[in-house]
Design brief:
The complex is a heterodimer. Chain A is an all-alpha fold. Helices cover 79% and strands 0% of the residues of chain A. Classes of the chains: A mainly alpha, B mainly alpha.
């Protein structure tokens, strides 16, 4: 083992500039980030639900707010988080069934997640914005 | 529920809630899409129908349980000092519980078209 400790060129695996996260790893970390975003957005979403169900005026207020610029940004981020969390979550459910565990299949599935999320994101934003 | 990462019960809760939410969204989002023009009376009436109200309330329960397991996993993986970890877990729990009370206060009074 001595030669390992004397090798000055051995890679530092915690050097963030040298770590290249594989596609499957990117999909996984984005699943966590999107989940955390969805939790943080809960008060805003529940507030909008409450407003929209309170009265005719409340419903219009909620609709007007959703038409604003800030809300558009909010909708883009949340729609992405929803779409990504949904498809990356289905990937986990499939992995529970031992589907996509083999390395090449795992990459194909990670690509499929990103493709499906892009399609749904475009559809969602076309509908919402 | 234990505060250790992993465990079979949280795992099952996470998977079952995910399945329920996915099914609900696959049915509810296209339904809302087709219900255009979506005005206040259609929107409000949807939530007074008992089956939709119950299904939505279950969705909220599934979501908050799912958020607890996922949020707990994130905190246990990245926050190591015991005091901070415990404080943040408590904060997450209180936050999700208050969301639950808030949601039930919105949804349950609409049941059967009372409010």
């Amino acid at each position: 083992m001595g030669h390992l400790t004397h090798n000055k060129n051995r890679p530092k695996y915690l050097d963030l500039r040298r770590i290249h996260l594989p596609l499957t790893g990117i999909v996984s970390i984005l699943h966590r980030i999107s989940g955390a975003l969805l939790i943080l957005a809960l008060p805003f979403m529940i507030h909008l639900l409450q407003l929209s169900l309170r009265s005719e005026q409340g419903f219009e207020q909620a609709r007007l707010w959703l038409d604003g610029v800030l809300a558009s940004l909010f909708l883009v981020v949340l729609s992405w988080a929803m779409a990504h969390h949904f498809f990356a979550g289905i990937r986990y459910l499939l992995m529970d069934l031992d589907i996509g565990m083999e390395r090449t299949h795992a990459v194909v599935m990670a690509r499929a997640v990103l493709f499906a999320e892009a399609v749904v994101l475009v559809l969602l934003l076309g509908w919402l914005l | 529920m234990t505060l250790r990462a992993g465990g079979v019960r949280p795992w099952v809760l996470q998977r079952l809630s995910a399945l329920y939410m996915a099914l609900f969204l696959l049915l509810a989002v296209p339904a809302a899409w087709l219900a255009e023009p979506l005005d206040f009376s259609t929107w409000h009436a949807m939530f007074t129908r008992p089956w939709f109200n119950v299904a939505t309330t279950l969705f909220c329960l599934a979501l908050l349980g799912h958020a607890w397991v996922g949020g707990r996993d994130i905190l246990l993986d990245y926050v190591h000092p015991p005091g901070l970890r415990f404080a943040l877990l408590g904060l997450l729990g209180l936050f999700l519980l208050s969301m639950l009370v808030w949601l039930l206060g919105i949804l349950l009074p609409l049941m059967g078209g009372v409010a």
